Amino acid sequence: MITASLTAGALSPANAATRKVRVPNKYDGSWTIVANTAEGPCAASTSYRVQIKDSDASIPGEEVNIDGGVSAGGAVQATITSGSNKVPIAGSLTAKGSGNGTWRTSGGLVECSGSWSAKRAG
Question: Model's pTM, two decimal places?
Fold first, then answer.
């Protein structure tokens, strides 16, 4: 969710890579995620479209792996990886189509942190 803001355009879009994650079907659909940076040189605000289908989460057009999941109650714990950049995220989603949480980069050239909010698209 945060990868494009991490490197200020250094990543080139490629076919989306997905890793099996645990997401209950009630969260299936297209979600718009807005990541806001509180600390660090990452973009102030970046929007992403995340697709969840049959427990798989992907960010179309971004070469990333998503490892983690969403509990039946909506708790989010995952790590988004693109190259050497890792972005652990935590927070929650609701079946009604919203959510929020925090993120922090680790292992890459840029260190940033902030918050994210989610709304089901459509």
Answer: 0.77
